[in-house]
Structure formats: structure tokens, C-alpha cells
Design a protein that fits this description.
The structure holds two protein chains of two kinds.
Chain A (H helix, E strand, L loop, with lengths): L2 H8 L9 H15 L16 H5 L13 E6 L2 E7 L6 E2 L3 E5 L2 H10 L7 H9 L4 E5 L4 E10 L4 E10 L4 E10 L4 E10 L4 E8 L6 E10 L4 E8 L4 E10 L5 E10 L4 E10 L5 E10 L4 E10 L6 E11 L5 E10 L4 E10 L3 H8 L5 H17 L4 H18 L2
Chain B lengths: L3 E10 L2 E11 L4 E5 L6 H9 L5 E9 L2 E2 L5 H7 L1 E4 L6 E5 H15 L7 H14 L10 E2 L5 H15 L3 E5 L7 H14 L5 E5 L3 H7 L3 E6 L2 E6 L1 H10 L5
Helix pairs in contact in B: 4-5, 5-6
Classes of the chains: A alpha/beta, B alpha/beta.
The structure holds adenosine-5'-diphosphate and magnesium ion (MG).
Chain lengths: 407, 246
């Protein structure tokens, strides 16, 4: 089904049909896309995206509410199952969970002046069919496991809001259970209030026929901290685009990602940190291991506005290319309009260090084992900063990946 | 048994000939020293023995413990009992010393069809040997050679040797860059390890090291081959008047 037919045939199924602002936006975006009034060549949001995936797909969506769940493992430990974009409405002293209402969305659209040129977000707006709202209350200390369950052939266009209230301290985990042929275009709007400390771990490991376009926009207020870790072991296409706005002084954000590609897997990554206040620290680091014919890109971006003095902003990209046929394109960018800043970026992409391989083998370790040691060492230091069970999960995924190397 | 016999070995790299009909025989329990000016091919020899794939062996034969060494790959040579202490040990951040060395010793034991050593016994052995070499147990928690001083790197090479227990160890300028104290610790390590069953090839520039180690033979190498062989007095001669007479 073409993009145009999808829009016309299914437009009664999208949510917020009564919302004027959104419906105007939808029409405008639809026109822009249909008239191809967007830059295809220099558009970072389209990098490594197969255009036909956007211009032609089978839109299919039916909400299944009864399967969604909120389970309490203990008083501070939640497991939330979001099924085809729908969650179960729930509230207690720590957290409020509900499906998005028109009211939630209206206030968002009114303030949404993001001039980010991102065609994936355009699609999200056009086909929007689901979304949830989480409110994590002040002074809570929680662990939240969020499981995205998407049924076969479903196309999810989801816009989510998470508010972390003052002084909340949360570890949020995102897991994607995608089985077959699903398209998941998910946009997070995260707001982190003063003194809140948030750790956000995202796991992506799903089969080849699925696609995930994950975007996040996080706003950090004074003295808050946002630490995002993305691990992508997927065979299916993944786009990770993550933006953080440091709007309050003494806040910090780190956007960290790691991907492990094989076969003809593709992933597209971008991080973007905007310093709008003084004394903030940011860190953007993506690391990738690429095998076979896989392909990846990583754009990193630090923007320091003129009043954001005493900024520290770091960027790093690292890649190991295991064959001559894989590729990793990386492009760091710094835009600095303040004078008292400490910023840096670095990039090392290349094959496995031959001299390290030689050294290990010269001690009797087989070539395969030596490769595994070197590749594991690539993310070893990062695992040390994670909780034990998460680190273990990643180690297991990594050894599965490494076992595939042995051919 | 032929312990080590190198016969008319010719080696080149990027088309440039480096070893030129190189010959040497080393028997069980012997200590040989190899001296020679910079660029004469000493490190090349060491790396060719270890199996470095950058070098091209054009002709010649290397027999080690009755097998054709050149038929084995890098790790097989190590498992067979060959050890190279590198001139410039490489830093490998993120690969921890202890599990690495544990994997090394076990791959060797496995190859010898001996039972592998368990974690606890290995840790004990490693601690004991490290202590003898003045290596702190703190250092054993670190990544391979990462952030080590020159002396620490060399000491760590000796520690690996003491664990892996090779029959034949090649030391490539292990003494270079060491102060007197570090040199003493390193040579003590080598001497303690020496026994009638294992052999050494010690590559060095300086007589100093040989005073501590007492080689059975000293060879002088120039332009890819041995030009003179003798005893420790050769080293004394080089110390006095350089390589110009060879
Ligand atoms: N990787 C290499 N690529 C090119 N030339 C090399 C390489 N390694 C060694 N050589 C050359 O081979 C010769 C012998 O070097 P080497 O074996 O390191 O000598 P030594 O250890 O005796 O100083 C030198 O001329 C050196 O430049
Ligand atoms: Mg040398």
C-alpha cells in the first residue's frame, strides 16, 4: 500500500482526529511528503533508511487493551507491558500510567516548536495511533521494566510522554518484543525535573522482519541527570535518534549506545545534546561492532548556546570493522556559541588491532578466542557501570553475537 | 631429539630481504645470546619464530622439538612451548591480565592433554609468582600492559613466562629501558626459571644483562646472519669497541 493510500484509507483510525492543530500539521506534512518537498540527499533523518519502507507499507493497527499489564514485582519494582501501543491505566503513590488523552497531547502540540527536520517524526505525526503517559512522582525511587509487545504485521506509530517529578530516582528499562513484520515508530518525550536522577537502559534484539525507529527528546531541569544506554543486537533495522536538552544549570546528560551488527543489518544513529544552561555536562558515545555486510552511521551533535558557560561536552565514536565489506560512517559536530566551554570529540573506526591479536595468540590463545577477548574488551568498561543483571543480559547477548563470528 | 635448529632461513618483509641464510642450533638447557647493531634483523628473527604473519619466509627450515615450526600458526607454537618476551609489549585495554593468563595456561595444558588448572589454584600460582617478581596483586587486576611503565611491562612478560613454563623462551631486548633495579629483578626472574630442560635465546645490545645471566654461547649478527659465535668474551669485545670489527 502506498503512503498516500494508507493516509486516505486509514485516516479515521488515527488518534486525535478532533485536534485541529494536529490535523493541520498532518495535512501540511502529508503535502510536503507527497510533493517530495524535503531534502532527500542531505537529510540525516533518512540516512540508511530504505525510502520504499516509508513510501510503501501495509498500515495495520488494532488496539488490544486487555493484554496490557502493570505488575508489581515488589513495592518499588514495576513491570509494565505495553501491547500494541496500549497500556493499562494504573495509579498508586509512586506512579501514574495511562493511555494518552487528547488533553495531554494538546498541551504538547502547543509547545511543540521543535524545528527538527526529521521525516520519521513527520510519519509519527501523520499516522499516530497510540501513546502513553507516565508520571513518576516526586521523591520516589523506582525500577521500571517496560516491555513493548508488538503483534505480527502491526504498524505502531506511538508518541509517549514520561515525566519524572522532582527528586525521583528511577531506573527505566525498555525491552522490545517484536516477533514478525512489525513497524515501530516510537517517539519519547521525557521531562526530568529538578534533582531527578534517571538511568534509561534500552535493549533492542529482534528479528530481521521488524523495524524500529526510536526517537527520544529529553529535557533536563536544574541539577537533574539523565543517563541513557542503548544496546542494539537486532537483526532488524533500528534507527536510534536521541536528543537531550540541558535547560537547567548543573544538569547532565549522557547518551550512550552500542550496536552489534552482522549479515546485512543496518542501523542509523544520532545523538544531539543542546546546552541551554550553565555548568552542565554532556557525553555522547556510540560504539559499534560490524561484521559481514552490515552498515551503520552515527551523527553526534553538541550545541552550546551563548549563555551556557562552563559547559563540558564530549563526543566519541568507536567502531570495529570485522570485514572489508561492512561500513561505519561517523560524523561529529560541535556548535559552540559560549566562550568558557570544554568540548571534545574523537573517533576511532577500524579493524581489530592486529598487534593485540598477535600478542594474545603468541600466548597460546586461539585466533577466535583472541578475537572474542578483544571485542568483549571494547564494551567491558561500560558494563561495569551497569547493574549486575543488565550487565549479565548484555554479556549473554554479546556471547551469542560472538559465537556467530565463528564460522 | 632436535631441540631447535634453524637452517638457511631467508625472510623478507614488503619485498625487502631481512634474514639472509640464517643458521643456529640450540640444544636443551642452553642459553644463547644474540647481539648485533640496530636493524640487523634480531627482532625479525624473534617474530618469525613466534609466527608473526607480517613476515614472508622465502626459504629455509626451522625444526623445534622435532616438528617443522613453520607449519604451525602463532598459537600452536606457543602451545608447543615457545615463548617470546616482546621488545615492545602491546597495551590491550579492557582485556584483564588474570583471565587472559588463565586462558593461556589452560590452552597450553589442553594441548598437552593435561587437566586444566582451576580458578583458585591459578590465582594462587599467579599471586605467588607475581610476588617473587615484585608485582603487586593490584596490578593483576589491570588490563594487559595498559598504563604500565617500561619496567612493569618487562616484569609482566617474565611473569607470563613463569606461568606458561615454556621450553624455549626468546627475550627481545628485555633489558632496554630498564634501570639497574628493574634489570636485577628481571634477570633474577630468568635465572630462577632456568633449568636443564629449558633453553633461552637472549637478544640484547648490552653486556650488562649477560653478566647476570651467563650465556653458554654469544653470537654476533649483522645484515641478517650470524657473523661470529663464541663465548661471553665476545660480548666484552663488543662493549669495548662496538660492532665495527664484525
Ligand atoms: N614491519 C616492518 N616493515 C618494514 N620493514 C621492517 C619491518 N620490521 C622490520 N623492518 C626492517 O627490517 C630490518 C631489521 O629490523 P629488526 O629485525 O627490527 O632489527 P633489530 O631488531 O636487529 O634492530 C630493519 O631494516 C627494519 O627497518
Ligand atoms: Mg629489535
Amino acid at each position: 500500500m502506498t503512503f498516500e493510500n494508507n493516509f486516505i484509507n486509514h485516516s479515521k483510525e488515527y488518534i486525535f482526529l478532533d485536534n485541529d492543530i494536529l490535523s493541520n500539521q498532518r495535512k501540511k506534512i502529508f503535502k510536503k511528503i507527497i510533493q517530495k518537498n524535503y531534502d532527500k540527499k542531505n537529510n540525516e533523518s533518512l540516512k540508511n533508511i530504505t525510502i520504499s519502507d516509508l513510501s510503501k507499507f501495509n498500515y495495520f493497527y488494532k488496539p488490544i487493551q486487555e493484554k496490557s499489564q502493570v505488575s508489581l514485582i515488589d513495592d518499588f519494582n514495576y513491570e509494565i507491558k505495553v501491547v500494541n501501543g496500549i497500556c493499562k491505566n494504573y495509579e498508586d503513590d509512586n506512579i501514574e500510567i495511562r493511555n494518552l488523552t487528547s488533553l495531554d497531547f494538546k498541551s504538547f502540540l502547543n509547545q511543540d516548536n521543535s524545528n527538527v527536520d526529521d521525516i520519521i517524526i513527520d510519519f509519527n505525526k501523520i499516522f499516530l495511533n497510540s501513546g502513553f503517559f507516565f508520571n513518576i512522582k516526586s521523591n520516589t525511587k523506582l525500577h521500571i521494566r517496560l516491555i513493548h509487545d508488538t503483534s505480527d504485521n502491526f504498524t505502531i506509530f506511538q508518541n509517549n510522554f514520561i515525566n519524572f517529578k522532582k527528586k525521583s530516582e528511577v531506573q527505566l528499562e525498555d525491552h522490545f518484543n517484536l516477533t514478525n513484520n512489525s513497524i515501530n515508530n516510537i517517539n519519547y518525550n521525557i521531562s526530568i525535573e529538578e534533582y531527578a536522577v534517571i538511568k534509561h537502559n534500552i535493549f533492542q534484539n529482534f528479528a530481521n522482519s521488524n523495524k524500529l525507529y526510536l526517537t527520544s527528546n529529553t529535557v533536563c531541569e536544574k541539577n537533574s541527570s539523565y543517563n541513557q544506554n542503548t544496546y542494539n543486537f537486532s537483526d532488524g533495522f533500528v534507527r536510534n535518534f536521541h536528543h537531550a536538552y540541558l535547560n537547567g544549570e548543573f544538569s547532565n546528560a549522557s547518551l550512550y549506545g552500542c550496536f552489534f551488527l552482522k549479515n546485512k543489518n543496518v542501523c542509523s544513529n544520532k545523538t544531539n545534546i543542546i546546552h541551554n544552561a550553565e555548568n552542565c555536562v554532556s557525553d555522547q558515545t556510540y560504539k559499534g561492532i560490524l561484521n559481514d555486510y552490515s552498515k551503520a552511521n552515527y551523527y553526534s551533535n553538541t550545541f552550546v548556546s551563548e549563555n551556557a558557560q562552563k559547559t563540558e561536552g564530549y563526543q566519541l565514536s568507536k567502531g570495529i570493522l570485522l570485514t572489508d565489506n561492512c561500513s561505519f560512517f561517523s560524523k561529529p559536530e560541535l556548535k559552540i556559541f559560549a566562550d568558557d566551554v570544554k568540548c571534545s570529540h574523537g573517533s576511532t573506526i577500524g579493524p581489530v588491532d592486529e598487534s593485540a591479536l598477535y600478542y594474545l595468540r603468541s600466548r597460546g590463545i586461539s585466533k577466535n578466542e583472541a578475537m572474542k577477548m578483544i571485542i568483549s574488551s571494547f564494551i567491558e568498561e561500560d558494563l561495569q557501570n551497569l547493574d549486575k543483571d543488565i550487565a549479565e543480559k548484555i554479556s549473554n547477548n554479546l556471547s551469542d553475537y560472538l559465537n556467530c563470528l565463528v564460522k | 631429539m632436535i631441540f631447535l635448529n634453524i637452517n638457511n632461513l631467508n625472510v623478507s618483509i614488503e619485498g625487502k630481504k631481512i634474514l639472509n641464510d640464517f643458521n643456529i642450533t640450540i640444544n636443551e638447557g642452553e642459553v644463547h645470546a644474540l647481539m648485533g647493531p640496530n636493524g640487523s634483523g634480531k627482532s625479525t628473527l624473534a617474530n618469525v619464530l613466534a609466527g608473526n604473519e607480517d613476515y614472508e619466509v622465502n626459504s629455509g627450515k626451522v625444526i623445534f622439538k622435532d616438528v617443522d615450526l613453520l607449519d604451525l600458526n602463532i598459537e600452536e607454537r606457543a602451545q608447543k612451548g615457545l615463548f617470546l618476551a616482546f621488545q615492545y609489549p602491546v597495551e590491550i585495554p579492557g582485556v584483564n591480565i588474570t583471565p587472559f593468563l588463565h586462558a593461556s595456561i589452560n590452552s597450553k595444558l589442553k594441548n598437552e592433554k593435561k587437566p586444566e588448572i582451576d580458578n583458585l589454584s591459578f590465582t594462587k600460582l599467579l599471586r605467588k609468582n607475581a610476588e617473587e617478581l615484585g608485582i603487586s596483586s593490584d596490578m593483576l587486576k589491570r588490563s594487559i600492559n595498559t598504563g604500565f611503565s617500561g619496567g612493569e611491562k618487562k616484569r609482566y612478560e617474565i611473569l607470563q613466562m613463569s606461568i606458561l613454563n615454556p621450553e624455549f623462551a626468546v627475550f627481545d631486548e628485555t633489558d632496554s629501558g630498564l634501570d639497574v633495579d628493574a634489570l636485577r629483578i628481571v634477570t633474577e626472574g630468568i635465572n630462577k626459571f632456568k633449568n636443564p630442560k629449558n633453553s633461552f635465546l637472549i637478544i640484547t645490545h648490552y653486556q650488562k644483562l649477560l653478566e647476570y645471566i651467563h650465556p653458554d654461547y654469544v653470537h654476533v649478527m649483522r645484515n641478517g646472519k650470524i657473523v661470529k659465535s663464541g663465548d661471553i668474551s665476545l660480548a666484552t669485545e663488543i662493549e669495548a669497541s662496538g660492532y665495527q670489527n664484525f
